[in-house]
Write a structure and sequence with these properties.
Blueprint lengths: L2 E7 L3 H12 L1 H8 L2 E8 L14 E3 L2 H5 L6 E4 L7 H10 L3 E4 L2 H17 L4 E2 L10 H8 L5 E7 L2 H13 L3 H10 L8 H4 L2 H15 L9 E2 L7 H9 L2 E12 L2 E12 L11 E8 L3 E8 L3 H17 L23 E7 L10 E7 L2 E7 H10 L4 E6 L13
Parallel strand pairs: 1-2, 1-4, 2-3, 4-5, 5-6, 8-10, 10-16
Antiparallel strand pairs: 7-9, 7-11, 9-10, 11-12, 13-15, 13-16, 14-15
Helix pairs in contact: 1-12, 4-5, 5-10, 7-8
The chain binds NADP nicotinamide-adenine-dinucleotide phosphate.
């Protein structure tokens, strides 16, 4: 029986999980691929670390050793950082290998180049593990986009932020205490900036945007806000209104305008992301034929991520035509220009009783209001009133009563 030869770049959580899964699921892989899968080589950085790797696998710190293997069908990349990873993957494609990556930062920056290069070399690119860990969101979107017109993708894409918000609400912790709990549980890095400032979710949103809408917004124009400004008081106020803070990446098209945001929003309990708690991730896809689909599951971890990578292995080995890039729709939600339609907002720090622009629909407590307004109006309100903080409410707000109507 012929063999599929694989090299793994990186032997950390993801690389090792994938290696072990190839062994534990060898029979299933052989059945689906009709060939045995063998790990030929593993690239690592630190030669001194003890690793549980079979002696017939080449373990090296030199990428050239990988490229010089006599047979190299698939290169699986599970390294951190975007350089030199991108160069490694370019070389792997040029050599004629399929590639699979778990590295969202690298793929957000260079995914398009790699996809185009792969097309010219007639190989496939798997990147399921770059977004929402074990949740098969990439495959689901690929499948859905055959005919459906995707209108919006919304997701909780960073388990660390979701864990912190959940801990703050359930255990009444401050942000700092909840972050410490995330670090103690191994859910947050010593430097948590990437997660809590929204960079990680931003990279994933860019990858989803390219897949769902065949384009990305100008990165500088994307509103990216993390969760560091969320206080226990805000969470408590939201709770009294039946709302929960969720850090949500949202990608949608208004007519021809692509709109992407990564920010804390408030959701009511009718929203599919309301019940997504702890380190879980979830993605909600709206499309014209099927309506709404929500996928929920583990967004990280050794075996959930290995599941995504192993499914990619099957995908790239089948080298289906759609891996060469499919056309997704550009005819989506016909709506007013972004920022020009009214939404509901929670406003805090607004000390006045009235306002001549914003429609206040509920007065919660001193300085705290629910308003119905356009985003541009909210920006203007905060420019004119130092200390005003506002958050969008997704879905219907079940307000108690309309207090003031001052438009
Ligand atoms: N962890 C997750 O649950 C998860 C989920 C989805 C996606 N990802 C993504 O998957 C990638 C890997 O994550 P991870 O958690 O597995 O990381 P990790 O545990 O820190 O492991 C990284 C591995 O890469 C190796 N490495 C780093 N730089 C290298 C270089 N320049 N050349 C060769 N090897 C290098 C390290 O080698 P040494 O062992 O020698 O130090 C280590 O084996 C990241 O891009 C991450 O964002 C992770």
């Amino acid at each position: 029986m012929s063999v599929i030869k694989v090299a793994i770049l990186g032997f950390g959580t993801v690389g090792e999980g994938f290696y072990r899964t190839i062994q534990s699921h060898a029979e299933e892989l052989k059945a689906v691929l009709g060939k045995k899968v063998e790990v030929a080589a593993i690239l690592i950085k630190n030669k001194q670390k003890e690793r549980d790797i079979s002696s017939d696998v080449l373990v090296t710190t030199e990428f050239e050793d990988i490229l010089n293997l006599p047979q190299l069908d698939v290169v699986v990349e599970a390294i951190v950082d975007k350089d030199p990873t991108y160069i490694y993957l370019r070389k792997a494609i040029e050599r004629g290998s399929h590639i699979i990556t778990a590295n969202k930062e690298m793929f957000a920056h260079y995914g398009q180049e790699l996809l185009e290069l792969a097309k010219t070399h007639h190989v496939s690119v798997g990147y399921e593990a770059t977004v929402a860990g074990g949740i098969p969101v990439i495959q689901t979107l690929r499948q859905l986009l055959n005919v459906n017109r995707v209108q919006q993708v919304q997701g909780i894409l960073n388990g660390t932020s979701n864990f912190i918000l959940t801990e703050m609400r359930e255990k009444k912790l401050s942000f700092t205490e909840a972050l410490r709990a995330a670090q103690e549980n191994g859910y947050a890095e010593a430097d948590p900036t990437n997660d809590v400032e929204g960079f990680d979710a931003f990279y994933k949103a860019m990858i989803l945007s390219r897949l769902a809408f065949s384009e990305e917004p100008n990165w500088d124009a994307v509103e990216r806000t993390g969760i560091t400004s969320i206080t226990s008081e805000l969470i408590e106020t939201a709770g009294r209104l039946g709302l929960r803070f969720k850090h949500i990446a949202s990608i949608k098209k208004f007519g021809k305008q692509l709109k992407v945001s990564v920010e804390p929003v408030l959701v009511g309990n009718e929203h599919p992301l309301y019940h997504v708690e702890g380190v879980q991730n979830a993605v909600n896809i709206s499309s014209d034929i099927v309506g709404q689909i929500t996928l929920q599951g583990p967004g990280a971890g050794m075996f959930p991520t290995a599941s995504a990578v192993i499914e990619d292995l099957v995908y790239v080995c089948q080298n289906r035509p759609d891996s060469e890039g499919f056309q997704s729709t550009s005819d989506t939600i016909a709506s007013p220009e972004e920022g020009q339609h009214e939404e509901n907002w929670l406003i805090t720090g607004f000390k006045h009783a009235t306002n001549d622009v914003i429609k206040m629909i509920d007065h919660i407590e001193d300085g705290t209001w629910i308003a119905k307004a356009k985003k541009e109006e909210m920006k203007e309100l905060s420019r004119q009133n130092l200390g005003v903080v506002y958050f969008p409410i997704i879905g219907e707000y079940e307000g108690r009563h309309i207090l003031t109507r001052l438009a």
